[in-house]
Amino acid sequence: MAVEAETLLARFRARLMPNGRPAQSLYGVIGDSAYYVPAQLFRDACGGLRPREVARMLASLGVLQKNQTGGFKHRKALPGSRKTARVYVLHAGPLGLPPSPAASGDWQR
Question: What global pTM score does this model have?
């Protein structure tokens, strides 16, 4: 992958938090400083790069949490819903995002 790590992180910050506010389909995780990112939003944030390669790079940077089998998607219950979805789990700190507002009870989808 020819894209630099900082360029990739900046792209993700811009797509996940446009205008400093969480993207409409981004889920904050209560009690954690992570975000659940639906697959479509993740693909959009990749901006034409291959999502699997982007996921590998983000995992190597400590941004993306791998699942128990070493894959990149997790099946998680969405905050505020009884539904589950396959999502990417991104940690706010290494990505340079503020902690999930849901962690403080300020925001939840």
Answer: 0.81
